[in-house]
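Quick question, first post here. What does this chain look like in 3D?
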Amino acid sequence: MARFSSSGSFTVFSFFVAMYGASRQFIWSGMGTPLFRCQHASATSLVSQPFHPKTISTNSMLHRKQASSTFGTNNLFAIRGGSSLSSSDTTSEDIAIKEEVAPKKIILRQVQLVHRHGDRTPITPMANETFWKDTLPNTNILQNIALGTYIKREEGSARAVHAAGGKGFFGQLTTLGLFQMVDLGSKIREELLKEVPISIEGDKEVKENNKDESAISTPIEIIKQMGCMYQIISNHLFTPEVPLTTETISVCSTDFPRTIQSVQGFLIGLFPDGIPSQSTTYKENDPIHDRIENIIKIDARYTSTMIPDPQPRRSKEQVELEKKLSNRLYILKKEDEMKDFGIRLTQILLKENILGDGYQDVTFGVGEEKEENEMEEFTSTTVTRPLPWSQLSEILKCLAIRELLPSSISTDDQHLVTSHAAWKWFENLRHPRLAYLSMQPMMKRMVENIEEEINSDGNIRLHIFSAHDSTLIGLLSAFRLEQPSEWPEYGSYLKLELYEVLDDDKTDSMEEDEQSLNEERFCKYMVRFSLNSRTLRCFWDVKEGADPLELLPFDRLIDLLQADGIDKVEDNGGTIA
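> Answer (accepted):
Ran it through. Tokens below.
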């Protein structure tokens, strides 16, 4: 029997009990045997490795510290190393630099977290519907994770429609995916929550109820760039003075069931004692929600601005540019080299009766959406071109996770498909203009969230966006960040952190106009990006031959975004901001 908090909300404990019962095991629907018992297997590692039927420990689900392996040389997400140093890695040379250059102390002020949803069923219809249906969480679980949340949609508007949303049992969050997101919420809570009281008052560090000032001021991390040194003295967003509550976060999601359910699972991990609200599942857009405290609004009104390939596209220019970029000679040459390989895989999927009715109607992806005359149905003997690489990749990924790949398709084949699909997406979205056209609305919103924090010292410290792999790829490209060599796995997350540069010498006696004050205020802030806790350096505004930046001044980010594209883009019905 599931247990609830005193406020009636669904807790992490009750979630696991409801899923597993007293035996603390669960059955993988469709496999008929208890899953494995593991010690903190991470969400990323779990979905990227084959499963073996074993028992599973619920108190160690889906999260293992992998500092040494997550970004190892053999990992799919190998990224060029950053320039930061932990305090324990400080060398004698660093000490000499510290003596010559006064380090600037910085403290975390805001985090924006964009995560991919958890494991899902294939978007492409598959033949064995019963198997895939049995991988989904039951209705009671979905109702329980929704407690304390409601979905905000435009009143009277139809829900967003996109081919990647799937139909029926396809494209839906699985039980495994739900656990991944609960685990991710717990992980982020650990990263951002600190019990030692520390607060900021004006520009001075205030140490309360702690006489050992050195314990607080000791740098957590030292960053050196462009002749400057920065000491991160606090990387915890929430403290006893600024607690993690439903009032200090905001949640936005694409209007897909799998992303909404993913962030609901994330919130269970973020609030392990339960969301402090009434035990009611609220109807969307009920005005009473705006008057009830502690109800978490999941804003699902911005789907088309949170993915780079909305259907239809937001502008004619993007449609034409995608076609043009996809027809570059080196891309066409690569496609020609991969064609026979793709046809062979498509033939196998058809011959093995893996694909279901309507598989040919699925079309999505930047530069990969099929024309209407390309949607004919093939047989195993009449295949003249492969399925689109994004579609092949997602099918094979879902099969590989469950050890269901046909014997004639190896894991190396599956990885090659995924690598090629990722290569195509990045090659297109690396184009500055396409990156701007596809991601500018979301980038603009993230910048506005920072401006609100700086200008009004807003209450919202953590902004959560529940989205897709394509969202992460689009933002990595648009912000000109170091990029992974392959696809972001289920539960991957991009963080945009806002740091304040502390200045103890500042005085309030200077008389400046409002514009100067605003410019000075923005100069005091730096932003930093990371993917799955690994810092990503930024190539924006970097001179040829210079190292990319780990910390980017916020005022420069604003300038670069404004200069990167025109303010208005022609679209199918006129202009959009």
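The mean pLDDT is 76.
Residues 378 and 502 are 63 Å apart (CA to CA).
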